Every structure is written in structure tokens, then in C-alpha cells.
């Protein structure tokens, strides 16, 4: 489903060159739930952004469903992201001026679908994460756990094959963090492939496989 071959990422300024990722080789199979762990600054989020086609590697190959994406145009990459990948961020990235329902609907605005079908899909996604009673609320009226559930609903509203979650429980207490993990485990049981960056070893152990990074390099 996601294959990374010999991935290298270098950030360069006029005065310094930083090697963020070095010779990363990963194959994520369809239906897997994989965790990525490592100390702060080791390249976890950079790796997730490259998997999600939000960032380009300096060197190496990316394959999605065995198709090379290096030659895709920006428009083709955006379409692939929208149709194939759902993103969940630690800081939620909700728009405070929009209702919960409107926030969840956002990914569908880039598809050629009717307003009614977008609304129906957003309602269905919110019901799936247990927030059907909060559709008309605004993000600043929600708890941290509720905001993250809205973010998950937004990630799944387009029925993506892949979910990339960057520290989805990082801003939550342990009880709410476990609730969020259980939602992700259920989505995975239903067939969604999930890659999750986490600092929580106990949560990582509940996933199928753990990839460790240290200073931008895989630890085997």
C-alpha cells in the first residue's frame, strides 16, 4: 500500500544542512496498523508527511499501491491525497469559525459531489465517532477529546484507504487517549490502513508493528 525506498530528506539553508531522514526503507501493507516511535526531533513527523505526500524526499522512491508518485503533477498529488489519505494531527487543525459539521465536510469540498451528499457523509462520520449530538457546536465549545474525534471524522469522511495520524493522543489525558486509540483500532478492523506517530509505548504495542527512528535513521 505504501512503500518507501531509500528515502532521504535534507533541509538546507544558506548556512546549515540538516539530514532529517537517512536511508528509510518501509513497506506498509494493506490493512496494517503501524506505529512510529522515537525521541523528539528524530524525523517522525517528516516521515509521516512524506508518506502522506505533503512533503517531497530529497532522494528515494515513494510508491502508493505500487505506483511511483515522483512524476505526479501537483494537481495529481492533491487528488491522490484527497481520495486516498486521511490526516489526523495532534493540534486538531479545526477551523474555529465553522461548525463541527462544516469542519468535517471540508475534504469533500474538493470533490464533485452535491451539498446534500456532503452533509450526509459528514453526519455519518460524526455518528461513527460518537459526536452526532455535537454537529452544530463550534470547536471552542468542545473538549480536547471531542476535538480529536471531530478531526478523526474529518479524516474518514471521504472513506480513505489510509489514515496517517501524527500524535493523535498527544494533547489528551490517558483515558481520552485510550478512547481515541479504540476508535482507530475499530477503523483498522474495518479495513483502514493506519500509520500512527506516537510517544506512548503502551499504545504502540496495541498496533501490528512498530517502526523506531533515531536521528533520522531506522533502528532495527
- What's the CATH superfamily, by name? P-loop containing nucleotide triphosphate hydrolases
Largest beta-sheet characterization: 6 strands, mixed
Given as residue ranges, the uncertain stretches (5+ residues, pLDDT < 50) are none
Q: What percentage of the residues does DSSP assign to strands (E)? A: 25-35%
What CATH architecture do you see? 3-Layer(aba) Sandwich
- Return the CATH class: Alpha Beta
Q: What name does the CATH topology carry?
A: Rossmann fold
Overall geometric form: globular
Distance between the termini: 21 Å
Helix content: 25-40%
- How many helices does DSSP assign? 7
How many domains, as an integer? 1
Calculate the mean pLDDT score and round it: 93
Q: C-alpha Rg, in Å?
A: 17 Å
Structural class: alpha/beta
Number of strands: 10
Secondary-structure element series: EEEHEEHEHHHEHEHEE
**Largest sheet: spatial strand order:** 6-7-8-3-9-10
Organism: Flectobacillus rivi
Pfam families: ABC_tran
Domain ABC transporter: 2-219
Protein name: ABC transporter ATP-binding protein
General description of the model:
The chain has 220 residues and is α/β, with parallel strands linked by helices. It has 7 helices and 10 strands. A 6-stranded mixed beta sheet has the order 6-7-8-3-9-10, with helices on both faces. Strands 2-1-4-5 form a 4-stranded antiparallel beta sheet, with helices on one face. Strand 9 (209-214) and strand 10 form a beta hairpin. The model has no long low-confidence stretch (mean pLDDT 93). Residues 2-219 form the ABC transporter domain. One of its GO terms (molecular function) is ATP binding. InterPro entries: AAA+_ATPase, ABC_transporter-like_ATP-bd, ABC_transporter-like_CS, MacB-like_ATP-bd, P-loop_NTPase.
Amino acid at each position: 500500500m505504501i512503500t518507501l525506498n531509500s528515502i532521504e530528506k535534507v533541509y538546507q539553508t544558506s548556512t546549515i544542512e540538516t539530514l532529517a531522514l537517512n536511508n528509510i526503507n518501509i513497506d506498509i501493507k494493506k490493512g496494517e496498523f503501524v506505529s512510529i516511535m522515537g525521541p523528539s526531533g528524530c524525523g517522525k513527523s517528516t516521515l509521516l508527511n512524506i508518506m502522506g505526500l505533503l512533503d517531497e524526499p530529497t532522494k528515494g522512491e515513494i510508491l502508493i499501491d505500487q505506483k511511483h508518485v515522483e512524476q505526479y503533477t501537483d494537481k495529481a498529488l492533491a487528488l491522490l491525497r484527497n481520495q486516498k489519505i486521511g490526516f489526523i494531527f495532534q493540534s486538531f487543525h479545526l477551523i474555529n469559525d465553522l461548525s463541527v459539521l462544516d469542519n468535517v465536510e471540508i475534504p469533500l469540498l474538493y470533490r464533485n459531489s452535491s451539498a446534500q451528499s456532503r452533509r450526509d457523509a459528514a453526519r455519518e462520520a460524526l455518528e461513527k465517532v460518537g459526536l452526532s449530538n455535537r454537529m452544530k457546536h463550534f470547536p471552542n465549545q468542545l473538549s480536547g477529546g471531542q476535538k480529536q474525534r471531530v478531526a478523526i471524522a474529518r479524516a474518514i469522511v471521504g472513506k480513505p484507504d489510509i489514515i496517517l495520524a501524527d500524535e493523535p493522543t498527544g494533547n489528551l489525558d490517558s483515558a481520552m487517549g485510550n478512547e481515541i486509540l479504540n476508535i482507530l483500532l475499530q477503523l483498522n478492523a474495518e479495513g483502514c490502513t493506519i500509520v500512527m506517530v506516537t510517544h506512548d509505548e503502551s499504545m504502540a504495542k496495541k498496533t501490528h508493528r512498530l517502526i523506531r527512528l533515531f536521528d533520522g535513521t531506522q533502528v532495527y
